[in-house]
Amino acid sequence: MPRIALFISQRLVKAVFVILAIAVFNFFLVHAAPGDPAAVMAGEAGAADAKFVEQLRQQFGLDRPLYEQLGTYMSKVVQADLGYSYRQQRPVFDLLMDRLPVTLSLTLTAFVLALLGGIALGTLAAMRAGTWSDTAITVVGLTAYATPIFWIGLMLILLFSVNLGWLPAFGTESIGAGYTGWEAFLDKAKHLVLPVTTLGLFYMAVYTRLTRASILEVRDMDFVKTARAKGLPEWRIVSVHILRNAILPVITVAGFQAGHLIGGSILIETVFALPGIGRLAFEAVLQRDYQVLLGIFLLTSVVVVVFNLLTDLIYSLVDPRIEVAP
Predict the structure, then answer these.
(1) With contact defined as beta carbons under 8 Å apart, do 294 and 26 qualify?
(2) d(C-alpha 203, C-alpha 120), whole Å
(3) How big is the CA angle at 252 (ends 149 and 198), to the nearest 5 degrees?
(4) Which of 48, 187, 205, 320 has its CA 20 to 30 A from that of 212?
């Protein structure tokens, strides 16, 4: 078996145990949170008497010992069954699949934008260190990093939607427009511009600072001086010799943050009224919908594990001197 295939298979086996351990931890974490979902539902139904609450607890299985609830939950997880949301009256898996496309289109676009933009700006700032362009990029990056995400989102809505009227502020598509084909794609893309920009700015600032610092450490090393002495063009020196060696710390941080983007999307989806996983998590917390929360946590952990595996594989692609090892 090739080494890369052996590495992937061994990491996948480990990932299964890691995800199961995270599922157990999430179960106790969610059940340790204050609030009784049966009492919340009974209160919303206008019948918050003790008898009705107890009836709901029996119906949802909340009256059973915690270890029995854990056993039931884990047996379902092993069978890829994420449970049933009595609040939404739908299987949790179906709920997540309905919301996942919105969250993926938001987070993946923001991640790619932040990574490419951050590396480009960080490289430009490092290669022109001490100039006005370096100072401008550094100031803008620090401002984006220090400003709360929700505040950036609100200001962008105020400027581009309310004052200028260029971009829609809420939702994923124009309601009642009836667009199809290319027009529908453009309409959805316009609705994503402000959320993606808001979410991407913070991470772009991080990657810009990290890329700049890494390149400043590498650009004066001996192998770079040797490349310049050979008369290689500057673009080749930067892209092949400097950036290739300086990019590894950026990949490491990006691999960790890629999985956390779903968590960061909670604020963005709430501000821009996007029906994604983040907004579903926010609603589930308010409604004490344990099954939905556990499903979202499990999905997030799977995403983090997958991105960590991809990060290790990208290491070997960027720098062949690094060999993958389980």
Answers:
(1) yes
(2) 13
(3) 15
(4) 320
Is the torsion defined by CA of 7, 8, 9, 15 positive or negative?
positive
Distance, in Å, from the CA atom of 234 to the CA atom of 99, rounded to the nearest integer, reads 46
- How far, in Å, are 139, 146, 202, 263, 295 from residue 143 at the CA level? 6, 5, 9, 22, 35
CA end-to-end span of the chain, whole Å? 14
Tens of pLDDT, residue by residue over 248-267, are 788 878 777 776 677 677 78
Q: Are 172 and 191 in contact (CB under 8 A)?
A: yes
Contacts of 159 (CB under 8 A, 6+ apart): none
Quick one: pLDDT band at residue 324, thresholds 50, 70, 90?
Answer: low
0.85 surpassed by pTM:
no
Distance of CA 112 to the CA centre of its chain: 11
For the chain, percent of residues with pLDDT exceeding 90:
4
Q: Which residues contact 275 (CB under 8 A, 6 or more apart)?
A: 98, 99, 102, 172, 269
Residue with tokens 């609603």: 283
- The phi, psi pair for 36, rounded to 5°, reads -115, 115
Q: How far apart are CA 116 and CA 58, in angstroms?
A: 52
3-class DSSP state of 145: helix
Q: Which alpha helices (H) appear in the chain, and where do they start and end?
A: 3-32, 37-44, 50-60, 66-78, 92-127, 132-146, 149-156, 181-218, 222-229, 234-236, 243-246, 248-271, 277-287, 290-318
Q: Looking at this protein, which amino acid is placed at residue 223? A: F
**Cβ 190 vs Cβ 99: under 8 Å:** no
